[in-house]
Amino acid sequence: MSIGIHLDPSVLTFVAMNLRGEVLRERSIDVPNLEVATETIQLMADTVKELISEIRVPKKHIVGVGIAVPGPVNVEDGVVLNPPLLDGWADVELVNPLRKLLRLQVIIEKDTIASAVGELWQSKEEKSDDFVFVYCGHGFGAGIVIDGEVHHGSSNNAGEIGHYSTGRKAVACEECGADDCLAAGTSYEFMAAQAKERGLELPTYEIMGPEQRSEGINRLTELALEGNAVAKELIIESMIRVGEVAGQLANALDVREIVFGGPQWDKVRELVADEVDEAVQRRFGLRAVHEVGTRTSSLGSQVGAIGGACVVMDASLSPKATALLLR
């Protein structure tokens, strides 16, 4: 058995999974106080202990704990480096503290890569050996699968897509300086300003941290799902930007399938799936050679945590040499 944890700026997700890949227990904690890393690490440890107690499995039968986190990340040292949407998480050591608290093997992986591992291992869908998993949470990233293998990159940070051009102007990005990157065009700050121009007031904050951004995005999403026309329009526009980038990835990698998943996609897919597919097809330049399909992951909002649990299985049970590097 393995435990998977997913740290997203808007939610902590946990799963307990057996060797058959069945999720036995799950837990989600919305908008925890993520800015204090030590408190979040303690919350992770306490929740894992609760899950282990509930499933009544001896600790010796638990292979380990896999944590999926936003990048960039130092996998070898178990350190979260400085995720752009997680204030207070610069150079945070995560693996060693959890090992001490849990007395279990702990592995860390970038959440988009973990999600791709989970999709490869767990999805019941018939899938291609070449696909891109587009993770849609508080931020966006990509997990890349080529020839049935997950691509990790030279530093285990493959899949950073936040500063790809969407072809749609937004505001100047503080990090890259461009005014059309995905991060700027999908930020809560930009969407709240757009909402105000269109007559919709969203929550405003003197200090904008991960908790505030999450609350704001959640409120916008709620309004869209309730039928508010402006909110729905903003959500669709935001996700079209994601589709524009996904289409570019399909071109660069020559894949046949784009898979969308994650907690935000799980909420809004019925509103945006057609428009996102149209954006992918519009950007896909190899249509004369082959088609590119889009679909929703069957793993839902738990995909990151399931991926974390699968990473542990992959590292411990798979005979591949690449898996040994994750130890």
- Describe the biggest sheet? 5 strands, mixed
State the distance separating the first and last CA atoms: 17 Å
Structural shape: globular
**Mean pLDDT metric:** 90
Which strand order do you get reading across the main beta sheet? 3-2-1-4-8
The strand count comes to 13
Q: Percentage of helical residues? A: 40-55%
Roughly what fraction of the amino acids lie in strands? 15-25%
Number of helices, counting only DSSP H or I runs of 4 residues or more: 10
Order of helices and strands: EEEHEEEEHEHEEEHHHHEHEHH
* Rg for CA atoms: 19 Å
- Give the structural class: alpha/beta
Stretches with pLDDT under 50, minimum 5 residues: 321-327
Give an overview of the whole structure.
α3 (111-122) packs across α9 and α7 (229-253) crosses α8 (263-283). It contains ten helices and 13 strands. The chain has helices at 37-55, 95-102, 111-122, 182-185, 188-197, 210-226, 229-253, 263-283, 303-317, 321-324, and strands at residues 2-8, 11-17, 23-30, 64-69, 73-74, 79-80, 92-93, 106-110, 131-136, 140-146, 149-151, 257-261, 293-296. It is α/β, with parallel strands linked by helices. Helix content is 41%, strand content 20%. The two termini are 17 Å apart.
